[in-house]
């Protein structure tokens, strides 16, 4: 699914853990500054408070948010489709991300209790979208008779909409929503029974959605999943022939792809962060979440393909072999997902250096993938033909009949919304791999970079309260009105930057002058 770049897709998911309560009480605008408050910090506090209030008071509908909001007509709202005023996006960059941003702002600025209220309102909107299977889907619809149907946990009496009872991990939907719910629960001191209950209900069902013994997760779940053997990844039987994967073996499987183990769309880091937050926030169940996280790390290592291509696929079948998903999602080495898995394994090693195999798997993958990125090491193919080690054939070129015609590198003109190549993150992954050899503290922005990012957020705020993205000559989505929009991704990125700056100027960063 094509969507704006999600926070969950970024390798710096480590920074989810960077915001903590400010040891210095915040100050009201116009009051005397506290220790460690500089002109930039004062501006950051002001922008953070103003932007949060504007977004909450003017942009929210039922406490939730879309991806894009027309700056002139805030009722024109877009996710992957146009939404009416009773519909919100759960999927990133949507209501889950806004909730997290409000939580981090509230922790950074406890002198502004309205920030906690904003977080609660957004989390309450998420609760509306929680489905009976425990997790979340793309949207929540607040109409008495929803047009975006789902088997909502708290409002749907009879579920007769087929698959709408399933929760989805795809696009990090349930993972990010649960992180948001858990962090709000913690912010509120576990005193709000509705939020605490939503978190507990989701966590119990997430626990039963991890394949026992196997350690992976399916793309969606409706209930507990059956155990699977802890197999290591292997190549399909067609390897070594010359007919191409589209024709070399049967394209039939005993399960739908969404019921099989998946790494699609950067799910690995999202699972690691979800389980890490659960362990931290609910220490009485820490052993459970540690065991789940360990099992998932074991799965990631087993999912690494053997030589000559020790990277990862997008989707695996019951035999732990790369499989077809949709008819253009091929059994292949997946460049994007491989990079995400490497970030996840490095995060696991940073959290627990007693498992060196997590870091070692990344070293093996880097040695291979660094030979197939291209355009001066800036691009990596989304799909790489299995067992194709020819330098001239780095892209995927056989597709399932009826699929989109894939060619090397760029997307064909018949389907521009699906990327066949993406930015290579291998240099950054290599740097983190090397750093962890001697330093296993959590990765975070340098103070210099944080100051620059904060200054940009401060300076680009229109009327000191909102950030505008101009879409001209077209709108942000097909059919949208061209012009100025309030993008949730920009709001969240800037809010989290401001909150981090406010916090870290009292801890590890110099109080910068500006």
Give a verbal description of the structure.
The strands form five sheets. The protein has a five-stranded antiparallel β-sheet with strand order 3-2-1-13-12. It has a two-stranded antiparallel sheet with strand order 4-5. Helix 9 packs antiparallel against helix 10. Helices cover 37% and strands 7% of the residues. With 514 residues, the chain is α+β, with helices and mostly antiparallel strands. Strand 2 (77-78) and strand 3 (82-83) form a beta hairpin. The protein has a single domain (34-512), classed as Alpha/alpha barrel (Glycosyltransferase). Residues 1-36, 240-250, 390-400 and 403-416 have low confidence and may be disordered.
Outline the fold blueprint:
Elements: H1 39-59, E1 68-70, E2 77-78, E3 82-83, E4 87-89, H2 95-108, H3 114-129, E5 139-141, E6 167-168, H4 173-187, H5 193-207, E7 220-221, H6 245-248, H7 267-281, H8 286-302, E8 333-334, H9 335-351, H10 356-369, E9 379-381, E10 383-384, E11 421-423, H11 426-435, H12 447-460, E12 469-471, E13 483-487, H13 488-504
Antiparallel strand pairs: 1-2, 1-13, 2-3, 4-5, 6-7, 8-10, 9-11, 12-13
Protein name: Pectate lyase
Keywords: Signal
InterPro entries: Pectate_lyase (IPR012669)
